[in-house]
Amino acid sequence: MLNPVPLLIDGEFRQSATTEWLEVTNPATNEVIASLPCARDEEMQQAVASAAEAFQTWKHVALPERARLMLRYQHLLKEHHDSLAQTLSQETGKTLADAKGDVWRGIEVVEQAANIASNMMGEMVENVATDIDTYSMIQPLGVCCGITPFNFPAMIPLWMFPLAIAAGNTFVLKPSEQVPLTSMRLAELFAQAGAPKGVLQIVHGRKAQVDFLLQHPEIKTISFVGSVKVAQYIYQQGTQHFKRVQAFAGAKNHMVVMPDANKDQVINNLVGASVGAAGQRCMAISVAVLVGGAKAWLPELKAAMSRVQPGAWNDSNAAYGPLISPQAKERVHRLIQEGIDQGAVCELDGRHCQVAGLPNGNWVGPTLFSGVNTEMSIYREEIFGPVLVCLEADSLEEAIELINRNPYGNGTSIFTANGAAARKFQHEIQVGQVGINVPIPVPLPFFSFTGWRGSFYGDLHAYGKQAVRFFTETKTVTARWFDDDIPSGPNLTINLR
Ligand code: NAD
């Protein structure tokens, strides 16, 4: 067995006894780099039981002590930033610079977790009735769990377990089976930072292991990030088993280009936001809506896109890496063909892309469509590849209406020099994260990651104050301390004062 990935159960990195193994590959070569166990039921049970036991101690640890664990963890993550990014590049194919960004966005959430105390403050009102005070406190829930996708192997696990654990919970993580190695390094560093045994567990697998977590009575919350169908399934199953669920799903993010915008800024940002990370970002811009005269910029956009090319993670000239798997590449090829068959104009076709020295990688070159309408599958489906589709609109109102009709609501942006247009857009658009001359408006962790509509199932979003609410329960206490001279005898009515 090549490089078997361990489970993390009860504080021990241990080999699974399973007979079911998956291959982890390097997407630039499709060579197998590790073997991944699908955890057996007994192993899943041990992980959850150990997390439940650890909770009984961890919830009593003083809040500043829990915060200090996160400070030490943040320090270690920064110290190992480069090596984490290398591991991440190897299993995702991301360029080293992009992989470092992935780790960095996770480190920022750990910084927020180190500041947990200010988000754990309750409220108090004195004298709600004579000599009676009411105050609320925030308490952890128990065992929380996270199920993560392939495309941000550092950032997305770090959206979840540091805040949950800082709030006093324990955590079971099931990373993507395609990119488990970064999660294991994150867990090793967490242990090195002093995380007590059992506070974080890692299990591996696919649907069967996820189903186990969805049904287990000890698990109180499910945090999921991934594709739409699975997000819907997780939300339905999780809530059916009376768990609190936040499920972040797929997207189709539009950039509105107004004719008064700065053309060079538009073109540079469109190229980067659509093909960066091979388009495998939930906040990638996959649709450009060219308003009025902005449609004349298409030839320059095409020229700029044709100048960027994918390549190996350690090639400093590479704009982005390969797709995650041959299946992902085939799916993108199929959608490009459907776009052509359905009548869109394929201005740039990335299907025949080759990278010197890496003939087996899952490469797709930058792909650009014009003449697209809302009925075409390249508009309706999340492509998750380096493909940008362009639609046209006569006015800002038409562009807003188009975006609001799309079922997704993760991110959107407008490029304009007109403040009134920008303000109208931010006010009327039915999308949870809006950029104004910013193509990928991912909020920093003191805000929350607020996808809407078909891109999110649940109520409370990732990181920020909302995540602390998600990982905690509010308890309200009403208290009276009797003076000796208080009149005695039963009180049989509801007090009005
Ligand atoms: P995916 O849905 O295939 O997998 C996500 C997780 O779900 C993995 O851990 C996987 O093992 C598990 N899973 C897969 N099939 C399952 C099933 N049938 N039942 C139970 N669990 C199952 O997603 P992916 O391909 O790894 O990630 C890409 C998707 O994630 C894209 O759609 C992207 O938009 C989305 N995404 C969304 C956000 C966001 O914040 N909205 C962020 C990143 C990625």
UniProtKB/TrEMBL annotation:
Record has GTP-binding as a keyword: no
Pfam families, per the entry: Aldedh
InterPro entries: Ald_DH/histidinol_DH (IPR016161), Ald_DH_C (IPR016163), Ald_DH_CS_CYS (IPR016160), Ald_DH_N (IPR016162), Aldehyde_DH_dom (IPR015590), MeMal-semiAld_DH (IPR010061)
EC number: 1.2.1.27
GO biological process assignments: L-valine catabolic process; thymine catabolic process
Organism ancestry: Bacteria, Pseudomonadati, Pseudomonadota, Gammaproteobacteria, Vibrionales
CDD domains: ALDH_F6_MMSDH
Protein name from the UniProt record: methylmalonate-semialdehyde dehydrogenase (CoA acylating)
Organism: Vibrio navarrensis
